[in-house]
């Protein structure tokens, strides 16, 4: 049963973020043949995941005390995240990386404006709300939105190949007069439209991946930002703080920031002799369903 106050969404990749601490002193104490063997095993798995049409993998060297390594897993099937988690945990490398945090979500395209248009069209058709005919028409109009090429490309695009990444979770506030979920639909839709304009003003400078986590994790949404210049994160997030959807209703969790690197650079990351690079030859074509 569709609720008139609930905006629809289009859903794509299942996403699992995992943050680890690397015990560098234990790693450095290994003899060279053992280090090579552990690195090859992990590299083989990570490479297979990054090349899989039904999955993707992002590696990032994190900055600060909140972790050293972030693995971002994409999977077409939610259950496949469990397979990936188990495969990573069986690696010999797991003897040297300690899990610190994780986040489960599904890539999401919010449809505030489109949902309102669907409701209006069905009212104009004279269909009784939530009747079989109403539900069928609603599903078809929603499917049209999903088939729209731009939406399909965003739902199933691979992890952006940009050097810098910033991930954080967020909620919409539920506090007295500032309760997002008690705010009328039309007002919420207007606020989200204005909120989206700020993001679009940074088009070309940052790639945003929004994932829904209500019912999956402790926060309601996860936000991944990817850019070629880390200052873009500061400017974008700061600008959005002045937007009412954020200034009045936004609540934010911890931020993880770092540099993405290629699977072929795993050894450089583990050695800690230099910052591992994101290689141009690793760029993959978007995966479309």
User: Tell me, what is the CATH class of the domain at 13-106 and 261-278?
Assistant: Alpha Beta
Written as H for each helix and E for each strand, in order along the chain, the element string is EHHEEHEHHHEEEHEEHHEEH
Q: Would you identify the CATH architecture of the domain at 13-106 and 261-278?
A: 2-Layer Sandwich
| Rounded Rg | 21 Å
Strand content: 25-35%
Count of distinct strands:
11
What is this structure, in a nutshell?
This is Coproheme decarboxylase. The chain is an alpha+beta fold and 289 residues long.
Structure in words:
With 289 residues, the protein is of the alpha+beta class. The protein has a domain at 13-106 and 261-278: 2-Layer Sandwich (Alpha-Beta Plaits), CATH 3.30.70. The chain has ten helices and eleven strands. α4 packs across α5. It is elongated and about 75 Å long. The chain starts with 7 loop residues before the first strand and ends in an 18-residue tail after the last helix. 26% of the residues are buried.
Descriptive terms for the model:
single chain; 289 residues; alpha+beta; Alpha-Beta Plaits; eight-stranded antiparallel β-barrel; 10 helices; 11 strands; 38% helix; disordered C terminus; peroxidase activity; Coproheme decarboxylase
């Amino acid at each position: 049963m569709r609720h008139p106050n609930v905006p629809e969404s289009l859903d794509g990749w299942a996403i699992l973020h995992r943050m680890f601490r690397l015990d560098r002193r234990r790693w450095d104490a290994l003899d060279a043949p053992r280090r090579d063997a552990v690195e090859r095993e992990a590299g083989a798995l990570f490479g297979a995941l990054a090349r899989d049409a039904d999955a993707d993998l992002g590696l990032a060297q994190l900055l600060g005390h909140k972790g050293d390594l972030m693995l971002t897993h994409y999977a077409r099937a939610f259950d496949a995240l469990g397979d990936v988690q188990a495969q990573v945990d069986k690696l010999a490398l797991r003897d040297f990386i300690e899990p610190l945090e994780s986040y489960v979500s599904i890539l999401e395209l919010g449809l505030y404006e489109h949902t309102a248009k669907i409701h209006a069209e069905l009212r104009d058709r004279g269909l009784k709300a939530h009747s079989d005919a109403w539900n069928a028409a609603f599903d078809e109009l929603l499917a049209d939105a999903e088939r729209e090429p731009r939406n399909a490309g965003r739902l199933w695009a691979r992890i952006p190949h940009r050097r810098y990444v910033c991930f954080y979770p967020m909620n919409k506030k539920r506090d007295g007069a500032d309760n997002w979920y008690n705010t009328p639909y039309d007002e919420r839709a207007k606020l989200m439209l204005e909120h989206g304009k700020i993001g679009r003003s940074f088009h070309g400078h940052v790639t945003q991946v929004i994932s829904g986590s209500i019912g999956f994790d402790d926060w309601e949404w996860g936000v991944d930002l990817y850019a070629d210049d880390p200052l873009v994160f500061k400017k974008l997030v700061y600008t959005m703080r002045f937007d009412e959807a954020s200034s009045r209703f936004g609540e934010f969790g911890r931020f993880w920031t770092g540099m993405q690197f290629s699977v072929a650079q795993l050894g450089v990351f583990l050695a800690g002799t230099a910052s591992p690079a994101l290689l141009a030859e690793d760029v993959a074509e978007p995966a479309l369903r």
